[in-house]
């Protein structure tokens, strides 16, 4: 993948192996080496049927060649596919279906669709390109899946970046150049991934909920409030980022996790992901943090009010109300005798009284104008 000449070869489907280290399988799944059947089952909901149908209708072209490395697997040297696992999985499912081994109806239907369209040697000549090592192909994978058109999920991106830093010993800048991303993005993904690992080793944390919503964890680290509350240095080099949250902040880490993602019994207080920035403001407020820490059932809106984070929204609503009243005043005199207008005007008058009670200095202003 370095721009030099590459040779496209052919192998049978059975000689090509799904990658047990594929980040898309999930960090916990790939923590131990799984068998090919287990991997294929894990990939079952990756819309493999759509790919299989496209192979039946259009074939498997050389420009779709899989990328493989030769590594030790299951006690022998194997050709392991490091790019194109979804295509290989679709081929394996299609081969099983045509052989009459499909358990799902949709695959039996696909097998019937393949009748007369798939040649006898179709599964014996699958194009692939062999590369020396995973390192040789990592730049291509990084561009394609981290910044390119076939992006991985955020947790998968972060795991790949961690691999480049920890296994290939690259700096943030070197990773940036290799995968075509920004240095700040690389650093943030790495620190977020190390925080996920730290959470996994922390008691009273529902890490499975966090992993499902890794993007929220990643986004929250942009806020000054989260950085301060957890004691995270968002500019940390890899050595410092090994444990993003210092030991004296571990209790805060558990609380952060509960508020953001919930635990075994709760769903967290954050709600919509658009509340991330507001949550950051809450954590900058001593009063709001004290409320969250001491309340048995903390409420996001209450915490936001205590932090003063709803000031902008209140101001916006008042401005909108004032603007609407000014527009209404231009024709109010024409409709002043109508009962429905008088009813609403009475309501607004009561609101005015309430405003002067909240801001007593306005009473003199109103009295002067009446």
From TrEMBL:
The organism's place on the tree of life at top rank: Bacteria
Record-given protein name: ParB-like nuclease domain-containing protein
Species of provenance: Ectopseudomonas composti
